[in-house]
Amino acid sequence: MAANQETQRGRAKTGRRIRGLDPMLHMERLLWDLGYLRVAGVDEVGLGPLAGPVVAAAVVFEAGSAALPVDDSKKLSVARREALDLRIRDAAVGIGIGCVEVEELDRCGVRKAGLEAMRRAVCALPATPDYLLVDACTVPEVGVGQSAFVRADGFIHSVAAASIIAKVYRDALMVRLDSLHPGYGFAQHMGYGTAMHMEALRRLGPSAAHRNSFAPVRALRHGQRVEVNR
Question: The domain 19-182 is classified under which CATH number: 3.40.50.720, 3.40.640.10, 3.30.420.10, 1.20.140.10?
Fold first, then answer.
């Protein structure tokens, strides 16, 4: 009797450990079990900034692989994101990155730019994925089955990984833009409309890296006054 109870306790403990080990892999596991072995998580970053490109990433892990301690990139420190970026790149069997620059973004609009960046990321994968798990919206014109979930980067492993890859990649681009367009502080705020950025915009005027389709930039291009919140 005692031995039987010990066995049951051991099984319960093992079950809790397995369930708690990688809950973010739940969707991938379901798809792997259905035969979709190359499951790509897809996410984009940079829809909101006043400057710089929109960047998306698609990440595929080997079927049956263990979870990394990933999360929504916005919840992670810079150091944590960069460390995980290296781990993801080491563990993934496929990574694709898509980028839509400012000029194209201004022509097509930021929403379409985000979708196009995700499409390019999927197409940049070394092998066509069997299925896509996407943050918030489906990817157009890829010919692959997919499911989209709001805030997927917070609870789906491959999507969280994609958000980290895209964020680290875009941040590096913004640091480069900071050296090309000094004075705006791109390396600090990554193009977002912070008080520091707005003050620099008011003082220097928009640069070639700024999005003319965004209201504050457009107003300054036309010589209109833009208030800076201090």
Answer: 3.30.420.10
